Amino acid sequence: MTSPLLCVVGARPNFMKMAAILPALQQPPTPLPVRLVHTGQHYDAAMKEAFFQQLGIPEPDDDLGVGSGSHAVQTATIMQRFEPIIDRWQPRAVLVVGDVNSTLACALVASKKGVPVIHVEAGLRSFDRSMPEEINRILTDQIADWLFTTERTAHEHLQREGIPPERIHFVGNVMIDTLRRMLPQVPQAAAVIRKWPGGDRIPISPSPGRKGAYGVVTLHRPSNVDHPENLEQLLICLREVSQQLPLIFPLHPRTAQQMQTAGLLKQQHHQHILTTPPLGYMDMLSLLSQAHLVLTDSGGIQEETTALGVPCLTLRDNTERPVTVTQGTNTLVGTQPAHILAAVAKIMSEGGKRGRLPELWDGQAAGRIATILKKHFGP
Question: What is the C-alpha separation between 204 and 121, in angstroms, rounded?
């Protein structure tokens, strides 16, 4: 069998990126042989239904079934289970995306086995090494042979870190490829909101001058949810925000667990806050695209809101995606309630940042990646 290019996914943020990359690599007339490996870092049947099927991702050729665990346990288990996959397929290269534990673990195994590593979404930096993702990004980039970037600042970071410029390719953002492809198919936000008990409390009709008369919240960063005092402060702040604008709050499993452990789950049963389980891609894209504003600590949502032209308030002190701030609709507001409430009030009275679409966020990033890889790894 011809040696394939192994493409790795492991967690929810990876799926939207690989949904664009796989078809581009297999596009005639010179398709590359590819195999998909799912590490199972994030996995449940509902997630597979909501992401793989909705996005048209094929069944993985290998599922490592790793599951949850500490960073050390999870990374080590992925490495142990991925090595036999390398030995069996003898791939021409391993392609990893993003910055999750699966990204670093599979890149390390490939590099130690002498297999070229391709990193899509390279060079992003928050300069905050308390974030596990920052460690994953830095180390993966150091061992990658091909580094594909989403914004020009990433190129600058990589060159400062000693990466030869011939390895770096500015191609744009593959996650935006998927967003642009799927956006015409998203359901109306009203249909999504009405699925959930209490959804009738959320006004659907857009108010004058607004996209929609609700906001969307996501929280999952350890710094925000793993410390009960920080989490409680944010939840109290969100209740105040909801007096100005009703909120829809899909609960990340990590956040829900921390809220339950800290006895804070009941605090979110509030008249103007609708909490839901984690949402599939299409439902979440629907809510984001039609929201008046978004409050989040997610890097991916910072990018999606910029592409959608929706004001985003990032509840962090830093971001690894600065183009969403300098060119897009994103504003860093930190986690102090006074700053968050002031930023919300400003959007409600004056409107949010208008922003513009960053360079090469045009829906063609995966095609650029495929063109480059086919020239080197093709027949």
Answer: 35
